[in-house]
Amino acid sequence: MAKDEMNGTGAEAAEVKNYPPLEMEAKVRLPMDQQKNLLGFADVTFNGALTVTDFKVLKDKEGNLFAALPSKPIGGGKYSPTTWLKGDEAKAQLQDTVLAAYDAAVDKLKARAASLDSEKPPRMADQMAKAQKEADKHNAGLPPVGKSDIKRGDRSG
């Protein structure tokens, strides 16, 4: 296949082609700390057979989210994509799939954070004070034990 056919440049680019529909499934990883406009990374599996990694979920200057193709640095702060999707329908489907997976990942993180806030165990000092009160209450119902009641070497009591 000629280079023009692979990347869609030249005479082939003007031609409108109908590409078969793709099944896409995305998994998004959220970074521990947000870096400028980078919100996450996605791995996309196409037709259950090919997984492409390192798509990026980015925010543009207006605050709109979009999925960027995997890329490599080419110098001067610029990047070149390492993969291409042909057809506007496939590109729109990729955006929808990755952004839906991003929203799901954010919702899952929010739910996890909310559950951690509501499930906070009591402080250790509070747990110890409660245990002491319960022990004092239990021990109050027991008969007092004096030194004369315990025989030397007796471990039964």
Describe the structure in your own words.
This protein is of the alpha+beta class and about 160 residues long. It has a domain at about 15-115: Arylsulfatase, C-terminal domain (2-Layer Sandwich), CATH 3.30.1120. The chain contains 4 helices and 6 strands. The protein has helices spanning about 5, 10-15, 90-120, 125-140; strands spanning about 25-30, 40-45, 50-60, 65-70, 70-75, 80. Strands 1-2-3-4 form a 4-stranded antiparallel beta sheet, covered by helices on one side. It is rod-shaped. Residues about 1-10 have low confidence and may be disordered.
Determine the number of helices (DSSP H or I, runs of at least 4 residues).
Answer: 4
Strand-pairing-aware structural class = alpha+beta
The poorly predicted ranges are 1-8
CATH topology of the domain at 16-113: Arylsulfatase, C-terminal domain
Distance between the termini: 90 Å
Helix content: 25-40%
Shape type: rod-shaped
Task: Describe the secondary structure blueprint for this structure.
Elements: H1 3-7, H2 11-14, E1 24-29, E2 38-46, E3 50-59, E4 65-68, E5 71-75, E6 78-81, H3 88-118, H4 124-140
Antiparallel strand pairs: 1-2, 2-3, 3-4, 5-6
